[in-house]
Structure formats: structure tokens, C-alpha cells
Design brief:
Layout (H helix, E strand, L loop, with lengths): L2 E3 L6 H10 L9 E6 L7 E4 L4 E6 H4 L4 H16 L3 H4 L2 H9 L6 H26 L3 H17 L17 H17 L8 H12 L5 H9 L7 H16 L8
Parallel strand pairs: 1-2, 2-4
Antiparallel strand pairs: 3-4
Helix pairs in contact: 1-3, 3-6, 5-11, 6-8, 6-11, 7-8, 7-9, 8-9, 8-10
Length: 250
């Protein structure tokens, strides 16, 4: 597995992640790592005929989670090379099938793409959680969910909306289901972990979203779906989020 770190930035996290991935998987194409100057830039992976590219901020590459981030991105590349449906099938096609003939607000549509990305992440992290330590990922998910729950705007009468930036309670509830399902798939947390309390709080903030349903759907994703099965999974998840407005029974 060939990893080429270019520019001014730490190479060690990427080389260490390479060595971890190589214990169970390999990449046929080389990986070119490039650093971004803006510390707020998102990590972006690109796939080309002759290489994969990973664009990452220098701050992220120097963080305590750098190796875990690199391993996660390498796992996505492995899924892409094996042509796993989650990484080669069109998300747009599935959303079109799910929402054809319906008017959907832009916020909800953006959330649907995030839900599809959760599915991709689960399939990538099925690799990372089999070969890498789980402690940092568990702590990261707990911290992220705690921040989102704390930042969710309170409900208010009369349709008042918070004007400052805040986490959206509905997608926060889905994110909670994702975090629990991912870790439960690999027995990475105990029944008394704080994430369960945070998920309950997220569910209370968004009663129209069934955390238990999304948790079950994410947790039960089949390891090796064909294209049709995967498309149906995305269609079902999208419709569950957009069309099912009944109160959750969590």
C-alpha cells in the first residue's frame, strides 16, 4: 500500500494508519495526501483512475485523532476499490426514487444526504473498528453528540425560531442513532455508556424522529448488499426521515 504525503505536514499519522489497514486490507491505487492551509476546511477524499487523493487541513493532521481520521478515510478508499454499493452507487438516484413527486424543504434534503453519508461511514467503519482501537472513536462520538444536544434550540410557542447558529434537533436525533448503531455493531460500548443518555436527550428534543427506528436500521445494515438492496435501504431511510412524521415511541 503506497501512501505519499506531500507538502508541509506530519506524515506519521498517515503512515501509521497505512500499517494498520494493511493488516487486513490493501489498496491497489496509491494514496496522495495533501495539506490544506485553512484549519476549518473539511477533509475531502477524491478517487481517480490512477490514485486516491486525501485533502486534509494541517490542524486535523496534527490532532489527537489524526491517525483515526486517516484510517477512516483509507477504509472509504478500500470500499471504493472493492466497488461496494455504498461507495459507487448514486445517492441522488435513491433520493429521487424516495421523494419523487413530493416537495421537500432544502433543510430536510440536506439531512437526507447526511443520512446517506452515515450509511457510507458505517460500511467504512466496519473496517476501521475491526482493525483499530475503538477508545478514541467512542470518545469523539460522545463529545460530538454532547455538544450537539447542548446546542439544540429549545422548543418555543408560536413558531419562534432561534436566529443564532444551533444544531438541528431532528438530524441530531438521527446522528445519535448512527453513533449508537455503529458502536453496537462492534460491541464497542456497554449498556450503561453515557451515549445512551445523550441519545435519550436527543430523542426528547425531536419527538417526530424515531431514534429507535434509525438505530435499528443502521445497526442491521447487511454486510454485503447488492445494488438493489442498497438502493432500497437508502429509499427506506429517506422516506422514514422525510415522510414519517408520527411521534417516536422510544
Amino acid at each position: 500500500m503506497d501512501v505519499r504525503v506531500t507538502g508541509r505536514g506530519p506524515a506519521e499519522p498517515f503512515l501509521s494508519a497505512r500499517d494498520l489497514l494493511a493488516t487486513e486490507h490493501d489498496l491497489e491505487l496509491p494514496v496522495v495526501v495533501k495539506f490544506r492551509e485553512n484549519p476549518d476546511d473539511r477533509t475531502v477524499a477524491g478517487h481517480y483512475d490512477d490514485r486516491h487523493e486525501l485533502l486534509v487541513s494541517r490542524r486535523a493532521a496534527s490532532s489527537a485523532m489524526a491517525r483515526e481520521l486517516a484510517l477512516h478515510e483509507f477504509a472509504h478508499m478500500a470500499r471504493y476499490e472493492e466497488e461496494h454499493p455504498s461507495h459507487v452507487q448514486s445517492t441522488e438516484e435513491a433520493l429521487f426514487l424516495a421523494l419523487a413527486g413530493r416537495s421537500v424543504e432544502q433543510r430536510k434534503l440536506a439531512h437526507c444526504y447526511q443520512i446517506a453519508n452515515h450509511v457510507k461511514d458505517i460500511y467504512a467503519d466496519d473496517i476501521t473498528l475491526e482493525i483499530g482501537p475503538t477508545r478514541k472513536l467512542v470518545s469523539f462520538l460522545e463529545s460530538s453528540l454532547a455538544s450537539a444536544v447542548a446546542d439544540s434550540p429549545p422548543t418555543a410557542p408560536g413558531g419562534w425560531q432561534r436566529l443564532t447558529s444551533a444544531a438541528d434537533p431532528e438530524i441530531t436525533a438521527v446522528n445519535a442513532a448512527f453513533a449508537l448503531a455503529l458502536l453496537e455493531r462492534h460491541d464497542a460500548i456497554g449498556n450503561d455508556h453515557r451515549l445512551y443518555d445523550l441519545a435519550d436527550a436527543a430523542a426528547a428534543d425531536a419527538p417526530e424522529v424515531s431514534v429507535s427506528t434509525f438505530r435499528r436500521r443502521f445497526r442491521s445494515l447487511g454486510a454485503d448488499p447488492d445494488a438493489s438492496e442498497y438502493r432500497k435501504t437508502l429509499v427506506d431511510l429517506t422516506r422514514e426521515y422525510v415522510l414519517e412524521n408520527r411521534p417516536a415511541a422510544d
